[in-house]
Amino acid sequence: MSAHTIRTLEQLQALYAPVGEASIRKEVDHVHPLYRALIEASPFAVLATSGPEGLDASPRGDPPGFVIVQDEHTLLVPERRGNNRIDGLRNILTDPRVALLFLVPGNGETLRVNGTATISVDPELLDRCAMQGKRPQCVLVVQVQTVFFQCARAIQRSRLWDAGLPRRKVPSAGAILEALTDGGIEAGPYDEQLPGRQAATLY
């Protein structure tokens, strides 16, 4: 191990200044009405879980308000159609701890929620989370433990919402699959069919 590797909490804390009052006082154990406003404005969140097979962080998205604030201690997160890997859901079955990061387009601050989750197929909850007449596969019922906003520095440094930034060319989904399957999946047909397949299976 390198001599430059941080090994202790004391070494780590020496790198940073003391935590400011605002950074401490912004954390609460419930969904404050102002935090609720951020959740209800967010069309996108990242769900983080942990389990015996490893960690998972996966995106969740829908029109703003797709995560329902049932009360100040409970969130409802719909689980829609996807790739059927269910990595995060498998984790929750063995370790209910979850973390959510909410983003609001154009807003620098993000919102962090930590808590525990259960997986429900209660028909009433499925109906509440239906979209375009289609229910989700299940609903995560998140019991909130801590909520706080994250300062805007990461968004500012990344210029995430800056529409003037040039779009970077990246490999297509088909190109990645073709390379990883040694040509077993062809990039051209996959990429050509993907938009239609996604549009037909959003809900």
What structural keywords apply?
203 residues, 8 helices, Pnp Oxidase, Chain A, single chain, 2 domains, alpha+beta, 7 strands
Q: Biggest sheet: strands side by side, in what order?
A: 2-1-5-6-7-4-3
Computed over alpha carbons, the radius of gyration is 20 Å
Count of DSSP H/I helices:
8
* Rounded average pLDDT: 96
Name the shape in a single word: globular
Order of helices and strands: HHHEEEEHEEHEHHH
Say what the CATH topology of the largest domain is. Answer: Pnp Oxidase, Chain A
In terms of per-residue confidence, which ranges show pLDDT below 50 for 5 or more consecutive residues? Answer: none
The major β-sheet equals: 7 strands, antiparallel
CATH homologous superfamily annotation of the largest domain: Electron Transport, Fmn-binding Protein, Chain A
Distance between the termini: 49 Å
Number of strands: 7
Specify the structural class: alpha+beta
Q: Please state the second-level CATH architecture of the largest domain.
A: Roll
- Give the count of structural domains: 2
Q: Strand portion, in percent? A: 25-35%
Main CATH class of the largest domain: Mainly Beta
Q: State the share of residues found in helices, binned by percent.
A: 25-40%
Domain Pyridoxamine 5'-phosphate oxidase N-terminal: 34-151
InterPro entries: Pyridox_Oxase_FMN-dep, Pyridox_Oxase_N, Split_barrel_FMN-bd
Protein name: Pyridoxamine 5'-phosphate oxidase family protein
